[in-house]
Description:
Pfam families: Rib_5-P_isom_A. By secondary structure, this protein is of the alpha/beta class. It is 25% helix and 31% strand.
Amino acid sequence: MYIGIGTGSTVHYFIKALGIRCKEGLNVRAIASSKQSEKLAKESGITIVEPLPDQALDITVDGADLVFKDRSLIKGGGGALLREKILANAAKKFVVIVDASKIHTDQKKVAWPVEIIPFASALTLQAIRKLSIDGTIRLSSGTTPYLTDNGNYIFDVNCNQNGVNPHQLHSQLLALPGVMETGFFPPIATKIIVGTEQLTTYEFT
């Protein structure tokens, strides 16, 4: 099986469980969406490989920061949104695993990350703010910007303004030079599995 592995607290448990299955004999080759997930996967006994040019991923498993009723997602709290979106789109199946607290009703009252390149980032931020959208550069410590595994910045966009259409804003942001990707995922998930406090799961529909 050729799989993509996401990033985040929920995926952490998936990686540990998958590692147990691999040690029991399950044949898995995986691509991880972050250095953090890759390190944990290797420690758990999962074989990490480079992308294969002539083979699609069988499945990508990832978490989400928020899930909306139309099955669109907000991802990127861990800073891996660009790589996560690459793996999600490259897979035959994209399965999202979350806990019940991640189910959200209003797309217009959330914040989500935008990955931008460091070069002339002040100009990119000017262009973003011309869309009447504000936010903050994510920091790692003090005044030092957080860097993604791609060496880029994260601008956490505030979408609490009235009248913001997330689908439209996603397209507008991607059209700006300097913007690499946004944390808004359209409804592309094959399956969304929700865990509850009662240690049960159900499929979000």
